[in-house]
Each structure stands twice: as C-alpha cells, then as structure tokens.
Specification:
It contains 31 helices and 40 strands. With 927 residues, the protein is of the alpha+beta class. Strands 10, 11, 12, 13, 14, 15 and 24 form a 7-stranded mixed β-sheet that branches. A 4-stranded parallel β-sheet has the order 2-1-31-32, with helices on one face. The protein has a 4-stranded antiparallel β-sheet with strand order 6-5-9-25. The structure holds one RNA strand of 86 nucleotides.
RNA sequence: GCUGCGGUGGUGGAAUGGUAUACACGACGGACUUAAAAUCCGUUGCCCUUUAGGGCGUGUGGGUUCGAGUCCCACCCGCAGUACCA
C-alpha cells in the first residue's frame, strides 16, 4: 500500500463528520451524560495557538473515550469575543470590533476542525452577539434586584494607558495586567457585584470539587478567610472618654503585649476625634500624603511610616493600660476594621514600627518548647576546630560546616550541659560571654574581629529586657553601637525569629491568663469580651466586591437607565437587549466611548423621557465568561438565559480544561454566578465545574515563552500541513505530563510521525485468519493495552498512553501477519488520540463506519494470565541475577531454582539468614 | 518573607516501597545508495575491565526497611502564586 500521507484522507473525514453532525448531542435522560468543557477562547487575530491545541485535544480524547463508552457526550465551543484586543485593533486600524471579530471566528472554527476536535457546533455561542449578551444583561438585572449589584463611589485602580478601571485582580505588582503601565488611584462611581456575600460558601464549597490542590489553595488564599476577634478600645483625651474604635486581630492571645494601636489613614474615627488631637495638622498632612500614594508606591516604601496622635490615648480593656494611637499606612482600611492593636514582640510589622518609633516591646508568648535547639558558631580562634570535635558529644542531628562557620542542632535536653561547655570553651578566648540565666541565653561574642557579629555563639533569650546585658555588650563591641537597643540588634541578625516569635505558645505577662496555651487563652478572652459586650469573634475575608464597570466600548452595555435625578433603574426584560451602539468613536479619552453616541442618547430620551440616559460604561468581560457554560446547554433559548432542564442535565461539567492563569478569577466569578442562580432556584447544582485540570504552557524550542519577539512561535496550521493533525495531536500529548510546562521539539514531533507511519504500514499485515498461537499472542498484547490506555485516559496521563501505543506497535510489527480482530481493538483504542488515521484504516479494513461511534473495547481479565515471568534475584537487596519462572510459582520452587544459579552460589555460603519472596516480582536472599 | 510544586542519562521524560532510566529524541557503528535523504539493524547512565564481571549512580546529609527515586527528618537549589490581610 501507499506510504502514510495524512493529506489524502484528513479533509475527507473532517467534512463527512461535520456534514453528518457526528458529534451532536442533545439532552437524553435515558443516557448518562459527559460534558467536556474547554475554557472560553478569545478569538484573536493571531489564530489558534499550540496551547489551545493541547487543552482541546485533552478535552477531545476524554470526550471521544466517553462517547465510545456509551455516554451522551458533548464538547461545546464558543467565543469570549468582547474585550480589549479587538478594541485596540479598532483604534489602530479603524475597523469596527464587530466586523474584525466576526471575520476571525470562521478561521478559528476551521482550525479547530482541522485538528479533529469533536466539537458539537450546534452549541456555538459568542459573547458579543446580542442573543447572548441580552442574557448577560438579564443576569446583571437579577443581581441588581437582589441587592447584589450596586453602584458606589470607590477609589479605583486606573490604567492611564488603557484609560480604564481595573479590578484588583487585574493589577499585577501595581501594574496593569495587559499593558504593564503603573496603575493610578482614582475616585469614581462604579458598579460592583457583591461577591463578598458569598465569601464563606466560595471558600467552604471548594471541598466539593475535584480540582488540583494547588488551584484550590490559590483560590482559598484569594478569598483569604481568617478567623479572629474584634475588640473595642476606648479613646481618652485628658481624663475624658471621647470615643472608641474597634480593632481586628487573629491573635487575641497576645493582647497583653499590645504597646500601641494603629489606625489606617482612611479610618473615619480620625475625623470624629480630630478636635482632641493636638497635632491634627501633622496628622492631616500624613493622611493626605497616604491617600495620594499609589499602591505601587505603598508597596515599594519598605520603611514604616506613621504619626502619633498627640493628646489622645487608647485603653486596652484587658489591663486598662493606656497605649498611644498612631495613624499608619501599613494598616489597610479595606481589611478587618481598619484598626489594629500592635504587638511588637509577636508581629514583624509591629516590631519594625516599634523599633523605629522607640515604642516598648513586651513579650507575652513563649513559643511551644522546641525539640531541637540550633546554634551557630563562627570561628573565633585556633581552638575552633577543637570546639567542633567536642560538640559531637551533644549528638548533633545536623551539622553544616563552612570554612569558618558551623551550624548544628541538638536535642533540647542538652541545653544546660551546653551552656556549661560553651562557657568553658570561650572564656578567655578574646571573647565575652554571658549566660544570663537558665531559661534565657548563652551569648558569646568575640572581640577579635573589627566588626560586631564576627564571632558568636548564641542561644537567644525568649524575652530580653536585660539592660545589664545590653550595656555590657555596648561597652564591649564597636559594632553594637549602630543599634539603639538589644532588640533592634538581634532583630537585624540571624536571630530575628527568636526575638519576634510569631507562632503560638504559652502565655506569660498576661495576668490571669498566664500559663494557658494560645488556643485556650484565645477562647477564654473571647468569652470575656462577649460577656462584657466589648468584642466578639469575627471572620474576615481578603476578598473584595467585584468591580464590573469598564470605560470601554467593546463590551456588554450595562442595562441601567438613570432618571433626571440620577437614580438608577434596571431595564425591563422586554427592553433587552440594550444594543451596543455603532455610531461611536472608540478612541479612549477616559470617558466611556458610548457616551458620545447620539443614537444611544436619543434612544433613552425617546423611551423614557427627557433627562433620562443610559449607563455608558460596559461590563468587565469576566461577566460574559461567568456563565457561558450554562448557555451552551440551550444556545437557542430566546425566552430564558438557558433552560433549567437542560442545565440540570448537563451540569456540572465533567472535565474542565483551563490554563492555570485563569483559575483564580474566572472560576471564582463563575462559582459566584452559579451559587446565585442556585439560590434563585433556577438550577439544582451549586458548583459549576466538578473536575478541573490545567494544561501547562508550551514553550518555544529555546525554552522561552513563545513570542513573536523571540521568533519561536509554532503555528498549528504549519504543523498540520507538515505532518497532519494526528501527528500534531499525539505529539502534543507525548511531550510530557499535561500540566507541566514543556519546550517544543521538532525532532520528537517527527518521531511521532514515524510512529503513525508504522501504524499505517502495519495495516498491510492485517490478515483475515492467522494461526491460533500468534493470534492469541496478539490478543494478549492488545488486551493489556485496553487496560493501560483506559487507565491512562482516566488519569489524563496521555504521555504514557502514547508510549504504550508505541510499544504495542513495535510488538505487533514483529509478527508476519496481524490478526484482524486484535487490529480492530488496537484501532479503537487509538481512535480518541488519532481520529483521522484510525477512521481511514477502519474503513480500509471494511469495518462499519464510523470508528468514533463504535464501543470502547472491553478488557478481558481471563486473557491476561501470563505463562512465564522474569523475576529479580537479589542478595542483600542488591540485584545479582534474573530468573524466568512460571507465573505464580510457589516460593519453595523459586528458591530452589535460584540457589543453583552461579551468581547466587558465588555469594551465598551456607544457610541464608532470611529469604523474602514477593510473588512474580523479586526474591531477596539475606546473608 | 510566606504558601505550594518540583530536582532522575546528552535531551523530553517513565517507574502501586520490589530488576531505576520505559517510550521518544539525539549521538555512535552498520546495511541499502554513485552520493545524500528516507528506511532498516545494532550500541548508548558513569567508572574499571579483553571477556566474564565488578564498583558507583535519581540535588545534599541522616533515618526507617530484607529492599528507598518513592516513606520520615534536616538542608541546598529551581519554578509558580502571593505579598504590609493584623
């Protein structure tokens, strides 16, 4: 037969499948369903890239597998077509986004079909089409009616280049996610969705879904749930109480260590008590300065800053101690209560601030006794080597040595012995030494180096208030003088963690709570607070409401109309969709482009009367993509966003392939919408995506991210042209684990082409009847393959599946003839991976069309029995020989056979101590 | 800093506590060819050795086990997310 030339048949099958709608799936309650979802692609002018292909092929293999297993399977596709790139393209070229978008979509569809993705095209949707965004608007209105969409004046992130508002999530390191421009702060009235109302459920329900743990964790971090306590602090001016404020803390157990409190610059209480603040002008100046700082500046300002409020003090309700109040910009108004109690001894930020402003530091926690104690010793004299040998007697568990430094750890029980030893070794060695007390420190500082810290052996005290130690050291060491206190010196040394322990432990200096563990103390303190009515337990979230207004043209219009007084009203359902006007100049000016549309203005006045006008902002495109998987269920519905019956049948999705970069935002928003609709009783599930997996980034052959800049971009079209779709598909699956980033390699790709050519050639050997013995051998080969491939698809372990196909092909190729029955099994197994070549060979062999609607081969466990196996013979765990034995042989017969091997006789003299036999695997003789 | 993931030949990568390096690429040798490409066959972790064989090997150091890439402890390095979140 001819050589393997995919061009000769790929097009033929592609067109046949499409015209027959081979992959169409409708609701059929008599069958189990499988919903394979690929993330809503953005139809960019650059076309499909190899990363899309990777994810789609994974979706496709699983979909084809389930289809063959008899599931009613759908793999829908649509377009996340609103968004900045099309608008920016329009600004550059003058071509309207609607036109450019509609022009690219057909080529996307074509490319997807060319790689043989089994898409159910009857379900196609596009976010920019009125029949879709009518329902995006409808959903907005439902949120509005339920108080979950509201307009508020907020300080927003503003990108000066894109001239638009950005959600917090779209700000990366203080820069715009898209164009990398530093983000500015701007006060604006903006629409927001109250996603925070769902924070707890969004956090909690992650337990229900099968997602990579790391993804769940990222999402949990984003929601940032933390459980803590609020406490009311009274404010005193002179002898009068002038107000109070609430602080939030997760470490109520440290409250006796509170030596100051701090308010965020935006905290409203400041305005209320300003008459009592004697240095108000300084405070006000600081507040204004903080307000003007961008997030980027706040982040880069490492130095703590703040102003003390003169004339007022706060009262710690636990000990009635008066502590100063500061206004600082390291306290955020958007988290907790915008006020904190500061405990320098147990919080790094508070410690840094306290050191800078000379605020007392009070230790109230002894960390839970550690099993090991670490020491660092630096070389101080020639006796250092002797010192090193002698520390062996403390049984150190770990020693790291460099030329002049040693780090070692030993069991805490040796502490006293060590203090004694260190004292003896170091005394008189040009060193100063002080063992402060049993429970505190060994501090040994050498003086034979110019700089402080050149030599030391130290166990750092848990609470350092020993002025004596400090003064002595200060006399002693030149270097110490640069620090104001022992705290500061040690905090800036290797012993940071020792002087500022931030973990839980046992309370000290805390009155009646002394001796309790952090956990016990916390609950007793909370109880007391609640009884006194001055505090309570509180859960806070880092998550903030979702800002959806965008001052851009190419997005879904917000379905709100304002009356002449400026009050917002939701549009009625019969007036939807509110069409995106086309008489618009989309050049960005900072104002929404739609504001300049005459037809838009006119429409509002005609419909509602003079002075009425529509909202001119459009929605964040994440709104469009938060419900597309629902629309796929009923893409033709005109009276509802999707039919309840259809959604309840198809959802939740059974496999969602999406890049890891989209998981935090898109998935969070989609989950929010789903939960809202569940609460509205429109659907009966409250998590949209059951199983989710990610595809790793495909890098250029130089190991860098694919980019025009590096000239390392691989275009799937070119690869299909060169090798055919099946090769591209199988190569991308063979590259490595699905979720890993992996570089492109042309050579490996051509290796996959060689493999498919081998399959093609092997087809020539297929014979109607071959002898029984060889037929059985081949049936065993493919039978084993059935199990391996099924398992690998279940695990999404496609790289190993491809390897197994290669192995099986090599085995079959060693036969004169190939058994037709085995061949039909082999082709069906390969069909999800290489749909074109398998359909062609299936047809050439005269099997019933189409291979893709055939049933998945069954694994026959009785066929699997092996006659012979090779086992390893080990002596003391070391491989010395291998041995062929009958399958499932008894231990005694195996030992007998092993003992007469030369390799064994050589090592085993007399009776072995022990013999371990693992059936069909290994025999280990211990001598 | 914190959190998570990872570290295996020249390369991409395999390996339910049981023969480490499957499969593929590359390299080397050979066949075919006037030649090249393609194709086919063989070799390919490192070191010693003529063969036979031996020693060493999954980032480092310990531990558990008859047996560790895999489990435990500590450390080093890389990648990703996140960053004044109280």
């Amino acid at each position: 037969m001819s050589s393997f030339n995919p061009k000769e048949f790929e097009n033929k099958w592609k067109e046949k499948w499409l015209s027959e709608k081979l992959y169409k799936a409708s609701v059929d309650k008599s069958k189990k369903k499988f919903y394979s979802l690929y993330s809503f692609p953005y139809p960019s002018g650059a076309g499909l890239h190899v990363g899309h292909v990777e994810g789609m092929v994974a979706n496709d293999i699983v979909a084809r597998y389930y289809r063959m297993k008899g599931y009613n399977t759908t793999l829908p596709m649509g377009w996340d077509s609103f968004g900045l790139p099309a608008e920016n393209y329009a600004i550059k070229t003058g071509i309207p986004p609607k036109q450019s978008t509609e022009e690219v979509i057909p080529s996307f569809i074509d490319q997807i079909n060319n790689v043989g993705i089994s898409v159910d095209w009857d379900k196609e949707v596009g976010a920019h089409r009125p029949d879709y965004y009518k329902w995006t608007q409808w959903l907005f209105i439902q949120l509005f009616k339920n108080g979950l969409a509201y307009k508020a004046n907020v300080r927003v992130n503003w990108c000066p280049k894109d001239q638009t508002v950005l959600a917090n999530e779209q700000v990366i390191n203080g820069r715009c996610e898209r164009c990398d421009t530093p983000v500015e702060q701007k006060e604006m009235s903006q629409w927001q969705f109250k996603i925070t109302a769902y924070a707890d459920r969004l956090h909690h329900d992650l337990d229900k879904v099968d997602w990579p743990e790391s993804t769940k964790l990222m999402q949990r971090n984003w929601i940032g749930k933390s459980e803590g306590t609020t406490v009311n602090f009274k404010i005193k001016a002179a002898e009068n109480e002038v107000g109070s404020f609430e602080i939030f803390t997760t470490r109520i157990d440290t409250i006796f260590g509170c030596t100051y409190t701090a308010l965020s610059p935006e905290n409203q209480i400041l305005q209320q008590i300003k008459d009592n603040i004697s240095n108000w002008s300084d405070v006000e100046a600081y507040i204004n300065q903080a307000r003007n700082k961008t997030d980027l500046q706040r982040q880069t300002d490492k130095e703590k800053s703040g102003v003390k409020l003169e004339g007022v003090m706060a009262i710690n309700p636990f000990n009635n101690q008066e502590v100063p109040i500061y206004v600082v910009d390291y306290v955020l108004n958007t988290y907790g209560t915008g006020a904190i109690m500061a405990v320098p001894a147990h919080d790094e930020r508070d410690m840094e601030f306290a050191l800078k402003f000379d605020i007392p530091i009070k230790n109230v926690i002894i960390p839970t006794q550690q099993e090991y104690i670490s020491y660092i010793a630096r070389k101080w004299s020639n006796d250092f080597d002797k010192f090193l040998t002698q520390i062996q007697k403390f049984n150190p568990v770990y020693i790291k040595k460099t030329n002049d430094e040693v780090l070692f750890k030993f069991n805490a029980e040796f502490i006293d012995e060590f203090i004694e030893y260190a004292t003896d070794s170091v005394e008189g060695q040009y060193a100063w030494h002080d063992a402060v007390s049993e429970s505190e420190a060994v501090i040994v500082f050498g003086n034979d180096k110019d700089e402080f810290g050149g030599t030391d052996v130290a166990r750092i005290p848990k609470f350092l208030e020993d002025e004596r130690t400090w003064l002595k050291m200060k006399d002693f060491e030149e270097g110490v003088r640069q620090y104001k206190s022992l705290w500061e010196m040690l905090y800036n040394s290797d012993y940071k963690e020792k002087v500022c322990p931030t973990n839980y432990g046992t309370l000290i200096n805390s009155d009646k709570f002394d001796g309790l563990s952090s956990q016990e103390a916390a609950s007793k303190m909370q109880e007391w607070l609640e009884k006194e009515g001055i505090g309570s337990k509180k859960t806070t979230y880092r998550l903030r409401d979702w800002l959806v207004s965008r001052q851009r043209y190419w997005g879904c219009p917000i379905p709100i109309v304002y009356d002449p007084q400026g009050n917002p009203h939701a549009l009625e359902e019969k007036d939807l969709p509110l069409l995106l006007p086309e008489d618009v100049d989309f050049k960005p000016t900072g104002e929404s482009p739609i504001a300049r549309s005459e037809s838009f203005k006119k429409l509002a006045e005609e419909k509602y009367g003079k002075g009425w006008h529509f909202e001119v902002d459009t929605m964040d495109t994440f709104v469009d993509s938060s419900w597309y998987f629902l629309r796929y269920c009923s893409p033709d519905a005109t009276d509802v966003f999707a039919r309840t019956e259809d959604m309840n049948y198809w959802l939740p999705t059974d496999l969602y392939m999406i890049g890891v970069e989209h998981t935090v935002l898109h998935c969070l928003y989609s989950r929010f919408f789903t939960k809202f609709l569940y609460d509205q009783k429109l659907i009966n599930f409250d998590e949209p995506f059951y199983k989710m997996r990610h595809m790793g980034l495909i890098l250029g052959s130089d190991g860098r991210k694919m980019s025009k800049r590096w000239g390392n971009v691989i275009n799937p079209n070119t690869e299909v042209e060169k090798y055919g779709a099946d090769t591209l598909r199988m190569y991308e699956m063979f590259m490595g684990p699905l979720e890993d980033p992996k570089p492109w390699n042309d050579r490996t790709e051509s290796g996959v082409f060689r493999f498919l050519s081998k399959v093609w050639t092997l087809n020539d050997k297929v014979a109607e009847s071959i002898d029984n013995e060889n037929a059985t051998k081949q049936q065993r080969i493919v039978n084993k393959l059935v199990k391996k491939i099924s398992d690998d698809i279940d695990d999404l372990s496609f790289n190993t599946a491809v390897a197994k196909f290669m192995e099986a092909t090599n085995s079959l190729a060693s036969f004169e003839k190939v058994d037709r029955l085995s061949w039909s099994v082999f082709l069906r197994l390969l069909a999800p991976f290489a749909p074109f070549i398998t359909e062609e060979l299936w047809n050439l062999n005269g099997f019933e069309y189409s291979i893709h609607t055939q049933s998945w081969p069954e694994y026959n466990s009785s066929l699997n029995i092996e006659e012979q196996v090779t086992i390893a013979i080990q002596i003391n765990g070391k491989l010395r020989a291998t041995l062929n034995i009958d399958f499932d042989s008894e231990e005694s017969s195996v030992v007998e056979k092993a003992m007469i091997l030369d390799q064994v006789k050589k090592f085993v003299v007399g009776e072995p101590k022990k013999v371990i036999y693992i059936k069909n695997k290994v025999l280990n003789i211990v001598i």
